[in-house]
Design brief:
The protein has 74 residues and is of the alpha+beta class. Helix content is 22%, strand content 18%. The longest helix has 10 residues. The protein is globular, with a radius of gyration of 11 Å.
């Protein structure tokens, strides 16, 4: 799957509302990634690793898993 143009150099994309991180190379549902990017609640990590995302409190998203959408703090 092609990455969203706004996050084309990012593999792990976090959603500030749900604290879930998406692996854009493995995630099959493009609409979720597009919605995060267009809403302005996406977060990329440096370094771009799952370990860094977990260090910031994010959990890897899996298909079928959902969380409440909260208002992002920043």
């Amino acid at each position: 799957m092609a990455r969203h143009s706004r996050f084309e150099h990012t593999r792990f994309l976090g959603d500030k509302r749900t604290q879930l991180v998406y692996d854009t190379d493995e995630w099959a549902d493009q609409t979720v990634i597009d919605e995060i990017a267009e809403s302005g609640v996406g977060l990329c990590f440096g370094p771009d690793t799952l370990a860094e995302a977990r260090n910031r409190g994010y959990t890897l998203a899996t298909p079928g898993r959902s969380r409440r959408h909260l208002k992002p703090r920043a």
